[in-house]
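Postdoc handover notes: sequence design on the structure in folder B. Input tokens:
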């Protein structure tokens, strides 16, 4: 059970503690932040509201711990990460329980998130050993005007303290996707988990604690992002920010200092469907892509752009599948569960009301109980409706009918977002041309957008982000190149 057994030390009564210098502590603020169960809308857990002084202390400790960690052999860093991965997987049940209660993740998906996270940590350890063990060796005479008198040896060194801020929808997986690359590369970590999802993240951190990482290397401060976020992201002790979330990331990018930023932000992933597409395949992918975890995924299909000639058939197939989606509590592993908060549900409702007023066709009746919104397909959506452009982050999917592939590409590229997109066609030449034309970080051909597998590069352009994730890219993002140049007095021995 959450907060018991090996996790008992992370709680005090009904409050979860924060993690500093290898210890679980209560904040001196004496204040806590409530985590509301999205399904019951009652307080499920409480976490510490950390103070600015505590953040200062964490930064100081993380800085000192990093210096020693950078000198720890790479194989040893990998060994500890493998250990943490095994402990994480061993304790998948209590962590998944938190995901169900805090963010209403369906029970099976919650377990999958934890197992996937363990695999990500192990893969990162292996990849880090390979790529960080390599450097480059250059000689000077390849550049005009130089003799062979300079030898440049370059290797990768850590950045320092990495501030990791994940979003609510994958609080464990998107936390370890930052922690593991940072640690293998020799950095220390300050984690600020999302408020909804904080308790799952604290359990994950405890698995790293149990693995035996040095004190102070990994730290976790909790509190509302709106209250401690700016203080954290503008803190002079931070050497890199790895953030995943919504528009907040754009604001952080403007405020942060001259440090590397990894920003994975929102998306409005378009699904372009041509006349020759396999409509059964498309319908299955629209259901999986658009409605799994109630549409609360950055790479969810968020707008369908379908050729008018096949639109009626496709909409009928999708509707038949929508009717079979199970709506209800995450504990029962329902397909559609409550969205994360009341404000999120209100926002989604605002998009639905706007679409209604502007004449969209409702394929199902709009139904909401508390934070639970029934799946809804909106047909005949037009560009003047908000839902054509905004990210609902809920189980509501707009369909826009198009008359040419160019029209679909145009709509996709007119978006401020550019995370992923997908195209369905049997013509690989057309698929490649459309992929080239779509201004997104990734295009999937004949499948819904997806972030995994976790070693694939993953990136957004425009308002969808800066930099690239995926295990290899994240490791390379959390290091800098350091060179040593050996200068010789003369190009070579005089040979007899
Ligand atoms: P969010 O509201 O932007 O929050 C993300 C994180 O930022 C949370 O930990 C939040 O903490 C924190 N935060 C809030 N205000 C902050 C501030 N001023 N300074 C620093 N941190 C602050 O996003 P969300 O609602 O959790 O997640 C949904 C969004 O994430 C969607 O837009 C989705 O598309 C995007 N997303 C993107 C990816 C990707 O890889 N591209 C993946 C998943 C999700 P609190 O919870 O305490 O407010």
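Designed sequence:
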């Amino acid at each position: 059970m959450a907060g018991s057994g090996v996790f008992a030390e992370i709680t005090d009564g009904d409050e979860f503690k924060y993690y500093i210098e290898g210890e679980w502590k209560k904040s001196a603020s004496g204040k806590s932040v409530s985590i509301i169960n999205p399904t019951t809308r009652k307080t499920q857990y409480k976490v510490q509201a950390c103070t600015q002084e505590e953040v200062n202390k964490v930064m100081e400790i993380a800085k000192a711990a990093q210096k020693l960690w950078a000198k720890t052999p790479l194989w040893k860093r990998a060994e500890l990460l493998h250990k943490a991965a095994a402990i994480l997987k061993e304790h998948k049940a209590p962590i998944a329980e938190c995901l169900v209660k805090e963010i209403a993740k369906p029970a099976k998906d919650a377990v999958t998130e934890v197992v996937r996270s363990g695999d990500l940590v192990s893969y990162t350890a292996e990849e880090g050993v390979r790529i960080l063990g390599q450097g480059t060796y250059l000689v000077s005479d390849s550049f005009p005007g130089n003799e062979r008198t300079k030898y440049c040896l370059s290797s990768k060194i850590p950045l320092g303290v990495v501030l990791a801020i994940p979003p609510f929808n994958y609080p464990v997986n998107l936390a370890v996707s930052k922690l593991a690359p940072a640690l293998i590369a020799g950095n220390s970590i300050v984690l600020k988990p999302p408020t909804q999802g904080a308790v799952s993240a604290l359990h994950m951190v405890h698995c790293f604690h149990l693995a035996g990482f040095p004190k102070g290397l990994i730290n976790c401060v909790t509190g509302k992002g709106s209250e401690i976020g700016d203080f954290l992201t503008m803190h002079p002790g931070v050497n890199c920010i790895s953030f995943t979330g919504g528009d907040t990331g754009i604001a952080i990018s403007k405020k942060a200092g001259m440090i590397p930023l990894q920003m994975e932000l929102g998306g409005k992933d378009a699904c372009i469907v041509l006349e020759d597409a396999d409509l059964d395949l498309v319908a299955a992918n629209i259901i999986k892509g658009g409605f799994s975890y109630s549409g609360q995924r950055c790479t969810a299909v968020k707008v369908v752009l379908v050729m008018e000639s096949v639109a009626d058939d496709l909409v009928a197939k999708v509707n038949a599948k929508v009717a079979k989606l199970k709506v209800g509590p995450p504990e029962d592993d329902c397909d559609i569960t409550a969205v994360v908060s009341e404000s999120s549900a209100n926002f989604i409702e605002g998009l639905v009301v706007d679409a209604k007023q502007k004449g969209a066709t409702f394929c199902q009746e709009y139904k909401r109980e508390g934070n639970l919104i029934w799946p809804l397909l909106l047909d005949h959506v037009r560009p003047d409706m908000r839902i054509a452009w905004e990210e609902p982050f809920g189980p509501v999917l707009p369909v826009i009918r198009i008359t040419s592939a160019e029209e679909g590409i145009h709509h996709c590229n007119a978006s401020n977002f550019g995370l992923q997109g997908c195209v369905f066609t049997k013509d690989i030449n057309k698929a490649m041309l459309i992929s080239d034309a779509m201004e997104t970080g990734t295009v999937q051909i004949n499948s819904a957008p997806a972030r995994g597998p976790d070693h694939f590069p993953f990136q957004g352009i425009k308002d969808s982000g800066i930099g690239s994730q995926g295990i290899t890219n994240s490791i390379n993002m959390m290091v800098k190149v350091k060179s040593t140049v050996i200068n010789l007095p003369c190009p070579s021995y005089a040979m007899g």
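Context for whoever picks this up: The chain has two domains: 5-265+464-481, 270-445. Don't rerun without checking with the PI first.
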